[in-house]
Amino acid sequence: MTAHTESRLADNDVVAAVVGGNLDAFSILVVRYEAPLKRYLVRLCRNTAIAEDLSQDAFARAFENIRYYSRRRQFKAWLFRIAHNLWIDKVRKETRHTTPLVDVDDIVDPPNADAIDLERALAAVTETEKSVLLLNHGCGLSHREISYVMDLPLGTVKSHARRGLEKAAKAVRGRVE
Amino acid sequence: MTNNEIDRQERAITNAIVNEFQQAKSDSAFTAKVMKKIVATQASQEPRRNRRFLKPLAVAMGAGLGGLAALNSISTLANELSSSNAALYSWPPTIDASVFQLAAVIIAVSAMGCIVFSEHAPYS
Fold first, then answer.
1. CATH of the domain at A138
2. Percent of chain B residues past pLDDT 70, beyond the cut
3. Residue A145 lies in domain
4. How confident is the model at residue A106 (pLDDT cuts 50, 70, 90)?
5. Separation between Cα atoms, residue B95 and residue B79, nearest integer Å
6. Given a cut of 60, is residue A3 above it in pLDDT?
């Protein structure tokens, strides 16, 4: 497979190649979704090392279970669902052991003066609202796909998206005013 | 604050999220790490996958042996009942204790084998 054909292959074709025994084909999917997945997890965990580990685990788990992937879903949504569940497991485990997940040194770089303070805006919303906003605007998933990723009813996702955006805007306003 | 201003701020937030994700770059070292992990996981799971039949086999063997022992005991009991006139008119029938002992030993060994294999045979 050349780099050119690799970039043109649809996710389902790549998955079919992987299921057919072409292990290397999976690297196409890793390259394709690594950046948004890691960025999503960094924003959730606020710790780059944990986000990197979770991203690796998510890809590894996706590979292990690729035979069970249904072509009716988007591979991207399926992968993000795995990653999201891994993150939830991690949070539950950390809560049980009362170890703080946030590593202050690893928090995403603060924005410059002209840019909107995304850190502050996202700090004002709940974890669920943050996930919805990031998956929707950052990862380009539809509300329906987010409802699959987060295992929430579609209406709930829509109201989280609306409320989250309002809260984030209000937090930014509070800083400007 | 007007609705337009609120809309503008909400758009600014969504744009900031979009920009942040667009700026995220893929890292070839990460891909290499993931592929290495996958290969290692696959290699470690291969022997487990090959041994996966052991538990059902152990359970089937245990159940089979247990069933045979039970059948043997029943048939022995039936033979004793039919061959012994005294047994026809008395309960419990007079059966050689060794028959019960043998059946008990067979059932116990089968059950133990079943339990031991079930505990040790990997099945995921």
1. 1.10.10.10
2. 65
3. 110-177
4. very low
5. 10
6. no
* Chain A residues with a Cβ under 8 Å from any Cβ in chain B: 23-24, 26-27, 30-31, 34-36, 38-40, 52, 55-56, 59-60, 63-64, 108, 111, 115-116, 118, 121, 133-134, 137-139, 165-166, 168-169, 172-173
**B38 vs A contacts (CB less than 8 Å):** 23, 26, 59-60, 63
Rg (CA), chain A: 18
Q: Which of A106, A122, A137 is the last residue of a domain?
A: A106
Are A96 and A166 part of one and the same domain?
no
Q: How far apart are CA A168 and CA B13, in angstroms?
A: 7
pLDDT digits (tens, 9 = 90+) for B58-94: 777 777 777 777 777 777 777 776 666 555 555 555 6
The pTM assigned to this predicted structure is: 0.68
User: Measured between alpha carbons, how far is A87 from A89 in angstroms, rounded to an integer?
Assistant: 5
For residues B123 and A36, what is the distance between their CA atoms, to the nearest angstrom?
Answer: 35
ipTM of this predicted structure:
0.81
What is the torsion angle, in degrees rounded to the nearest 10, for the CA atoms of residue A49, residue A50, residue A53 and residue A59? Answer: -120
Residues A115, A156 within the same domain: yes
Residue in B with minimal Cα distance to A24: B35
